[in-house]
Specification:
The structure is a single chain. This protein is α+β, with helices and mostly antiparallel strands. The protein contains five helices and eight strands. 21% of the residues lie in helices and 29% in strands. Helix 1 packs antiparallel against helix 2. The chain starts with 23 loop residues before the first strand and ends with a strand.
Length: 187
């Protein structure tokens, strides 16, 4: 899946009108055709959150001299972390997102635990760190590590599957994660 998100498009997705510098507008992450797309909408045309949105946020359109790379707001990242909870195939992105939120001190670690897992879930079994020398019997008793994280701001706890580094290096995960974090030239 290609998660390429860019800086504001400069025009409203609903009306086609160009944004003025410092104008209030809304952005949303929308999943369509297996991709995550960013849409920007002027305040007059914004209809609020819709069920197909993963996250949304309010911004001021930057002046031409101020355009550049900026990090996504913590609340947007928390929304994405929550929305990816029931998508096992997105475990690597969710793990990196949790680490970024830990780094920003939005989340704090409560505990790290391991639990036996039969790896019967086809969507997540390839995220478990396996060595080629394991027998099928040993593979059935793999221990999956989870982080229990807490967010004081939202008074919520999050369980996040630990994804091992060799998995994080593959399948364009770095680019997907960067696209979620940054807008502007870096995205």
């Amino acid at each position: 899946m290609d998660l390429k998100l860019h800086r504001p498009h400069g025009v409203c997705a609903e009306t086609g009108r160009a944004f003025a510098p410092a104008e209030l507008f809304y952005s949303a992450l929308v999943r369509s055709e297996g991709k995550l797309n960013r849409i920007d909408c002027c305040a007059e045309a914004w209809r609020g959150e819709a069920p197909h949105m993963l996250a949304w946020w309010r911004s001021l359109y930057p002046a031409a001299a101020a355009v550049g790379s900026t990090l996504a707001p913590p609340d947007v990242l928390l929304d994405v972390l929550e929305n990816l909870a029931d998508r096992p195939a997105e475990a690597p992105i969710r793990y990196l997102l949790a680490l970024e939120l830990l780094r920003r001190k939005v989340l704090r670690m409560v505990e790290k635990s391991g639990r036996p897992d039969a790896c019967s879930d086809a969507a997540t079994s390839h995220f478990v760190d396996r060595e080629d020398s394991r027998s099928p019997r040993e593979e059935q008793s793999v221990v999956r590590e989870e982080l229990l994280l807490s967010c004081k701001k939202r008074d919520s706890d999050y369980r996040v599957l630990v994804v091992h580094p060799h998995i994080l290096r593959g399948e364009g995960i770095e680019e997907q994660f960067s696209a979620l974090l940054w807008s502007g030239a870096a995205a």
